[in-house]
Amino acid sequence: MGWTLRLNLLEQCQYRCGYCRPQALRAATPNSAWLTPAEYARLGVLFHAAGVEKVRLTGGEPLLRDDVEEIVRALKRGCPSFTVALTTNGQRLGARLEGLARAGLDRATVHVDSLRAERYRALMGDGDVAEVLAGLEAAHALLGRAKLNVVVQRGGNEDELLDFLAYSRVTGVEVRFIELMNTGSARDYVREAFVPGAEILERAGAVARVPRRSPSDPAALYRTADGLVFGLIASDTQPFCAHCNRLRLMPDGRLAGCLYQGAAAPLGAALRAGATDAELAAIVAAAVRGKRSFHPSTERRAAFSMSEAGG
Fold first, then answer.
1. Residues with Cβ < 8 Å from 171, sequence gap 6 or more?
2. For domain 3-309, which architecture applies?
3. pLDDT per residue as tens digits for the range 106-139
4. Which of 180, 200, 230, 285 gives 20 to 30 Å between its CA and that of 263?
């Protein structure tokens, strides 16, 4: 199985989504502790040797880092076969898209919780949705494919699902609806706003399920009556842990095999302490070998904020 590595570049984000950043439970990693492009390049080669085929840059908001283009370039230089993707709130995407594409970015996913300007700011805390959508559409045109993530929230945007699908029909951008995840840091918000995947499918008018593009894809695919395909990521009501292929590297180099995993391997600390490539590769191999699900449906885990764990 090919692995996907999620690089959480930083925990900071300029947005304030109700299920995420306001409930941060630990201080953000200081800038001085962030892994550098050169360190990502070195580790990238080791991850590639361990079977990683795709790297996704996440946060927080990854485009708050000034060196994202350099990170993409470093990863592609060391491992040209990597597929490098970016998940972003899109506020800075339009201005940096060409530079990212030149550096080697292959795909982009943009998070938008409402198509209505005032509601967008109310749900996400900042930003101009028209500007964000323009960046998304530019990415779709330049990279060949971009996706739009929507976290569905009762009393917030559950009445916009058909609007998002209409947007998809016009632009060709694939929409993925996401069930709220209870990570423990915003329990009251999630309890009140949670919309189960089955209801999302009903509201979106799904008529048939379509096979996942690969078994490890988090999004199950569905088709509407007119043939439009959209995705659903229903982590709580339809867990896909059995086929998960993701590893997670935190801003300071802590390595975990699951979003809900508490302890993480100190890969970055070992790197900065002078570990050899063989020693670092052994840490990566142990993480791959020991990967399992820590989903809260099977056992209780410590609370965390989404921005702290890389989404």
1. 137, 140
2. Alpha-Beta Barrel (3.20)
3. 999 999 999 999 999 999 988 999 999 999 999 9
4. 180
